[in-house]
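pinging the channel bc i need a second pair of eyes. not urgent but kinda urgent?? the chain im working w is below, pasted from the shared doc
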Amino acid sequence: MEEFEELLREQLQRREPPAGFAERVMSRVAQQQPRRRQWPRLLALAASVTMMTIGVSEGYRYHQARRAKEQLMVALEITAAKIEVAQAKVNALSERKLQ
């Protein structure tokens, strides 16, 4: 274990960097392009999610409206049939009274 500790101490000793190290690091930093901002991507993602939500919502509302229209049409057909029956009875009663 002592040999390992000695090797570790030796490797962890403070050393002076080679000449020009700081300048090389700073020149590389200057050459790197600045990181692109994430805001445009996040805004695009938020806009996409919003548009999808609106689309799904409108699709659901459209489906509900079509269903309500179909139900109304059935109700009107039933009402028309009932009115025809009632009108036929009224006409029959009117004819009886005239005779």
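so The helical segments are 2-12, 21-31, 39-98. and The CA atoms of residues 18 and 24 lie 10 Å apart. — does that match what u expected or am i reading it wrong
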